[in-house]
Amino acid sequence: MIRLLIADDHTIMREGLKRILDGIEDIQVIGEAIDGHDTITKVRSEEFDVLLLDLSMPGRSGVDLIHQIKEEFPKLPILILTMHEEEQYAVRAIRAGANGYLTKESAGMQLVTALRKVASGRPYISMEVAEQLAMSAMPSANNNQTHSALSDREFEVFCHLAKGKSITEIGDILHLSVKTVSTHKTRIMQKMELQSISELVQYAMTHHLLN
């Protein structure tokens, strides 16, 4: 039996996942978490076989949360379930210690297979993500990719800026203050030596970061 903890701040999403898993004999949802703090608390208080984790929740989330969980519970498999389709998000999550990566759009068809796979100790990633991981391991791969110098949070902000999101909108999506998002934007522009958002968008398009 796979004992599952679902961590997602949207009640509708958690209920939908439970409906998908209802009747699956070898998977049982025994815990739910609504933010990063709640996730850590639940993981510390009960034993789970898999953590199904949303990348964007209030409080500590994303790659930071993966790092913390893996430091405390290195053997707990983590399957990421996210709205982000970009392979770069997946690469950063896998590097942080996640065992699998699944988009919410494809969850209905692939969720059970993905959960069984990571619970058995095997990774669950798409061919596109596997290719990105292989490419990023090559010394020449990052020569012309200044986005590789961004922190994980900066990369999240970068992707949203490239999609035309405002500072306020990004703050709402990532649960950050407007001031924090503005600081990240400034650092992104400095690190990537960009002069305008239009240059940022062009860079994102050139490097296929807007899939």
Automatic annotation (TrEMBL):
SUPFAM superfamilies: C-terminal effector domain of the bipartite response regulators, CheY-like. Residues 143-208 form the HTH luxR-type domain. It comes from the Bacteria. The modification 4-aspartylphosphate is found at D54. The keyword Repeat does not apply. Pfam families: GerE, Response_reg. Keywords: DNA-binding, Phosphoprotein, Transcription, Transcription regulation. InterPro entries: CheY-like_superfamily, NreC/VraR/RcsB-like_REC, Sig_transdc_resp-reg_C-effctor, Sig_transdc_resp-reg_receiver, Tscrpt_reg_LuxR_C, WalR-like. Residues 3-119 form the Response regulatory domain. PANTHER family: NITRATE_NITRITE RESPONSE REGULATOR PROTEIN NARP, TWO-COMPONENT RESPONSE REGULATOR. This is Response regulator transcription factor.
